[in-house]
Write a structure and sequence with these properties.
This protein is of the alpha+beta class. It is 35% helix and 25% strand.
């Protein structure tokens, strides 16, 4: 029941991962040129997108196309350290994520194991870019 909005949200999330709107627009145009008036399989599109983005998108597609779970970005700030990870994900899911920490935009690279970044001050506000199709869980609840 979620295939229509999930597909659109997945593509917008992939656009965020590419992080270059001109490149993304060219990729979409190239899909139309490459597969014009053809019947194609999903794997062909996945491979095409992986080649054009120069990224291993298999874990991304496994998560969003072959799994019903929405990735959960879990984090907490303690003693001027941002601790974070992906949860509720397929193996090898490694999508980068854009966040603002104290108003400064950063790209972080969560994995399934906890990682950390030192912050300039304690209690720093963390904002996750809302254009990603993910759930967000602040483990400290603040």
């Amino acid at each position: 029941g979620d295939m229509y909005y999930k597909g659109g949200n997945m593509l917008n999330t992939l656009r965020q991962v590419v992080n270059d709107d001109d490149k993304w627009l060219n990729i979409l145009r190239d899909i139309n040129k490459e597969f014009y008036h053809q019947v194609v399989e999903g794997r062909q599109i996945e491979n095409f997108l992986s080649n054009k983005t120069e990224m291993d998108l298999k874990p991304f597609f496994d998560q969003y196309l072959r799994d019903v779970r929405i990735p959960v970005f879990e984090y907490y700030v303690k003693d001027s350290v941002l601790n974070f990870r992906w949860n509720n994900c397929v193996p090898r899911f490694n999508m980068p994520l854009r966040v603002k920490v104290a108003g400064v935009e950063k790209n972080i690279f969560p994995k399934s194991r906890w990682d950390m970044i030192k912050l300039e001050s304690a209690g720093t506000l963390v904002e996750v870019d809302p254009n990603y199709y993910i759930a967000i869980l602040n483990m400290m609840g603040n």
